[in-house]
Each structure stands twice: as C-alpha cells, then as structure tokens.
Amino acid sequence: MRILVIDDNAHHSELAARRLMQEGWEVFASDKPDVDSSWKDYDFILLDYSMPKRTGLDVLKALKEQDVNVPVIFLTGHGNEIIASEAIKQGAFDYVVKDTQLLYLERLPNVLREAKSKYELIETNRFLIQELRRANERLQTESYTDEMTGIHNYRFMRRQIEVEIQRAIRYEKPMSLCLIDIDHFKDINDRFGHPAGDLVLKELARILKDATRTVDYVGRYAGDEFLILFPNTELGAAVRLAERIRSMVADHPFVSEGQTIHVSLCVGVTDFDPKKRNTSESLIVAADKCLYQAKKDGRNRVHSKLRLISSESNKRDAAASAQQA
Ligand code: GH3
Ligand code: MG
Questions:
Q1: Helical ranges in the chain per DSSP H
Q2: Residue 325's pLDDT band (cuts 50, 70, 90)
Q3: N or C: which end of the chain has fewer CB within 10 A?
Q4: What is the pLDDT of residues 243-269, one digit of tens each?
Q5: pTM for this structure?
Q6: Has 224 been annotated as catalytic?
Q7: 103 Cα–ligand 2 center, Å
C-alpha cells in the first residue's frame, strides 16, 4: 500500500510515516499542502486539518477540483468532530482523531487496514452495479430489437402503439398505422434461396427506415410482415407515404449473388379512431383487414380503411397534392 501523509508539522508526519512503514507500507510524508497530479499515485492520503497555509478542508476542495480521487483519511484534533463531519461531507473517506500522540499512532495502521477493505468493497460494488446497469440496458435493447433486421420487434411496437394511443387521446392528435406484407415471399425463398430471402427482409427494413421520419416507428411484425407507426399523422398522409414506399420498393432492384429480385408489397393503412376505443390489437386487426383486401385485389397495392388506393389512383392523388403545394 502507498500512503501520502500531509501535515505541516514535520515531526508529526515523520512519526506517522515511521509507524506505517513498520507495517511494510510505502509512505511519503510532506508538509506541503499543494495538490499535484503525483498525488493520484497513492492508495490513501492522510490529511491533517490544522495547517497554517491551507486547512485540510481547503485541500479536500483542491483534490476534487483537480480530479484526484484517492481516498482521504482526515486527521483532526480532539474535540474537532464537527470539522471531521464537514470533511466527510466534502468527500473525505474517513477520519482519525489525534488524541494523544501515542494512542493515535497505535490506532493508525488498523484504521488504514479497515479503510482499505471498506474502500475495496465499495469499489467492487460500484463496478458490479455498473456492470448490472450495462447488462440491463443490453437486455432491454435486445428484447426490443428484431435480431435479423435490427429494427424494432413486435413486442416493442405493441408497447409503442399503446403509448401513442394514450398520447393521441390526451392531446387529441391523429395517429396512423401501416401493416406491410411482401407479395409472394415464399416464391422468392423458393426461387432464390432462404439467404436471398433474408437479404430482401434486411434491405426492405433499411428502405422503410430511410423512407420514414425519425419520429415514426418501424418494426418487424412477423416473417415477411412489417409495421410502421406514424404518431401525429392523419390517415391521408400515412396513405400517401405508404404509396410512396410501395412504389419505391416496386422499382428497387434487390440483388443477391448477381441475381436481381423484384419485390412488391401490399400495405394496409388504418388510423386511430377516438370513438372506437382502439387498442394496439384492434388497430393491427383493422390494418390487417385492409392488407387482406389489397392482396385480394391483386397485390402490389395500398388499401386504407377509407377506400382502395390503387397505384394509379394514388399517382393521381400525389399529382393533385403536388399541384396544390
Ligand atoms: P402473400 O403474397 O400472400 O403474402 O404470399 P407469401 O408467399 O408472401 O405468403 P406468406 O406471407 O404467408 O409467406 C411468408 C413466408 O415468409 C413464409 C416463410 O417461409 C417466409 N419467412 C418467414 N420468416 C422468414 C425469414 O426470416 N427469412 C426468410 N428467408 N423467409 C422467411
Ligand atoms: Mg407475404
């Protein structure tokens, strides 16, 4: 153990140093209370309170300012417990009362031994708590993330839909939801192989993330199905975005091992209805009904609860809104 003794009384610090060296410890005694970075190299600092240039409390402050985090054992005279408690408040690790020279020197090695075990225990606990916190964060991220695509999983999406429903009710704001399903994905797997299917899923997840705002939530519902949650968004705006995504994906070449895979999507779009007491399940069921309709009507299309939006009619809508803008 390496100990630094700071006491303006050279005789006192000399005695303390000699006593501690008898324990086989490395001790350096100084009467200069000027903190410097070399103080960081010690395991403990014994710091006297009563010094003419700077009190021990001043030195404690300087230690904190200079980021010297070595535990300090504060030395106070008899009857100075108030100062000792102030020192503890200011970050001292422990204190020793210098009663008679003899008694104090006899007690000192044990005080340091105990302080060392206590300090190590605290440090170990701090380390374990930090590890636990990190492990918890990791676990939470993993439990809310779809492993393959890296986007949110269904568990997260369901929870977030409930949160957004509450927000929509409270602030009387709209909110919309898209359920997306790849057309004939089984055929893609059959023709190009499962790894190519995986590539399509990952790339589609990226396209969906890129096409949406950071405030929107994109997640994988299951297999080849994805969910997008649009907070604070009217049905019409969500439908327009769904149509943009549908057409973007239809034009996007997915390339796996030199082979180009063409992918199309069906999208069911619904919105939160304050009159209907929607839950996350009922919203997904409503979006799924629209999705089913889009499949039934021939695939590669968007269907909302209002009406069928074929790719053609939507192009007209988009052109009309572009003209208005
Ligand atoms: P539809 O147009 O009616 O949606 O036809 P589909 O072939 O896409 O039918 P469906 O949506 O029922 O098929 C989903 C397929 O997705 C079945 C399953 O083998 C495949 N699948 C599910 N998860 C994965 C995955 O993680 N990777 C790959 N490559 N395929 C998956
Ligand atoms: Mg499908």
A1: 10-21, 56-65, 81-89, 101-143, 154-171, 185-192, 194-211, 235-251, 280-296, 311-324
A2: very low
A3: C
A4: 999 999 999 999 999 999 999 999 999
A5: 0.67
A6: yes
A7: 84
